[in-house]
Amino acid sequence: MNAVTVLGAGPYGLAVAVHLRAAGAEVCVLGDPMSFWAGSMPAGMLLRSPRVASSISDPRDELDLDGYGMATGNTVGAPVPLASFVEYGRWFQRTVVPEVDARQVETVRRHPGGFELELADGSRLHTERLVVAAGIAAFAHLPRVLRDLPTDRASHSSWHTDLGAFAGQRVLVIGGGQSALESAALLHEGGAAVELVSRAPAVRWLGQRPWLRSLGPVSRLLYAPPEVGPPLLSQLVRYPGWVGRLPARRRHALDRRSIRPAGAGWLKPRVDGLVPLRGGRVMTDAKAGADGVTVTFDDGSQQTVDHVLAATGYRVDLARYPFLSCELLGEIRQAAGYPLLNRGFESSVPGLHFVGATAAWSFGPLMRFVAGTGFAASAVTRHLAAGARRKALGAVVRT
Asked: What CATH code would you report for 2-139+314-398?
């Protein structure tokens, strides 16, 4: 039986694994390294997060983007290209967790002394503790009006790695955040006739007051390095331990303010005046026909296009993780689909931890970003170390 198994080999899973191993824990990692980043984002994408907040945490702070550049000669610029980030993540994995098991986990259920994992090849693994770092791919949100359409007519933005396949087509992008704006830019640059539709009346661009970032110590007070959240509030967001102590109402108000749909300022020249925007509209119906998809909006207007691309984000719901058995899922205390976690990211099921976006309800918006890997990995490691000390002390007392 493994002492600790980490399910997922993206930034959070890799960070937890390397922190635990540095503390002396026996760790098994299951997953396809960086698969979400490589398989659910379009080629040519740039990361919205600043470069300083895009490194995966390790205990010695040696395996950041600069360390990767020095070790490989592959300097990573800013904004960070998706392809470079994927290669960096895979280098991180090869360096510290070279023996990742890429077999798919079909089912996780309780087992005496821990958990049983049934794999796609029929084999079973047993572990005392399980850290779920399975990412957000399962949580892609497709608007209800699009769910009955064939996938060649309507799809979620995470289902594509090559938006150049839409060259020459009329594409309607739904959304007003970074994913929608960058997808629209890539579609336009790839030869599609693209239009953007958003609930908001106008696009909200980040970094449009550059003078606020040129005030020296004042700027450092206003903006925390991860740049998650508005000025000043970003300083609170950067400390998930503090956020976790806030009353639920205030915690979730902070979450809403910090992750409002917006686009990075560097993207604006690729969209403004090039991609038509219909703001303040809500899609109410969509029907596929011989000429394409006819979309109806809340103002009664209609538009026919070849494809509707929903860049409508993700909605965490543990029930959508296909590997959690019904029995196990029913034992996990939840709020709005999120697990309720203690300070060690442990759920109401002893030994079962969740990191990444699934921890955002308990620790705030930083858990949705790579910048949160350090806090999560350190907290899990401290929790398991404290548990090991209590277990050892109990054994001594009994003898």
From this structure: 3.50.50.60
